[in-house]
Amino acid sequence: MPLPLSTVERTRMHVRNVQLDGYKRADGWWDIEARLTDRKDHEYPLSAKTVARGEPVHDMWVRVTIDAKMNVLYALAGTDAAPFDELCSSIAPDYSQLVGLNLFNGFRKAVKDRFGDTRGCSHISELLMFLPTAALQTFASDVLDNADSEHKPFQLDRCHALDSKSEAVRRYYPRWYRDLKTG
User: Fold this and answer.
1) Total domain count for the chain?
2) Do 64 and 96 form a contact (C-beta atoms < 8 A)?
């Protein structure tokens, strides 16, 4: 359901777009790519330069290559536009430190620990927070969501609707349903 229309006249000042794409590779690995762009609907004066209306203030990219267990095998970040150009983009190579992390096991905390505050680019680090769920959706395209195997489906217990004690799990994944009484 879309948000209701505003009852107050307003002027849009800023647009942020975040795009995530997931790819299955021929070598059996997976690429998750993310891009963040910020644009203004007006000329935007900054300390270092003035950004023309509609031109990106930020345009940043991230790609991680992962295996089937969500381990980061390769990581790359890049900056095409930033308020302070090469002063901003010089941090991009540091994001190779993502290699060895697992998207489902402590990834977001590890990103904050490695790149929080002034240790990274706040925009690239924010973009990384989307990677685990984008990877989950990418893998979902290749796995039946209710496959009845000996392993619990990976999507269970990752959101309130798919809590093991929820009605959705009782209906659609009965094998994995945990009654509130029996736990």
Assistant:
1) 2
2) no
The identity of residue 38, as a single letter, is D
Q: What per-residue string of b and e applies to 75-84 under the rule 16 or more CB within 10 Å gives b?
A: bbbebebbee
Contact (Cβ atoms closer than 8 angstroms) between residue 74 and residue 64: yes
Query: What is the distance, to the nearest Å, from the Cα of residue 156 to the centroid of all Cα atoms in its chain?
Result: 19
Same structural domain, 117 and 71: yes
More confident: 20 or 168: 20
> Are 70 and 137 found together in one domain?
yes
* Structural domain boundaries, residue 123: 14-142
Residue 95 pLDDT > 90, yes or no?
yes
Q: What is the pLDDT of residue 169?
A: 87
Mutual angle of helices 107-115 and 131-140, in 10-degree steps: 150
Same domain for 108 and 152?
no
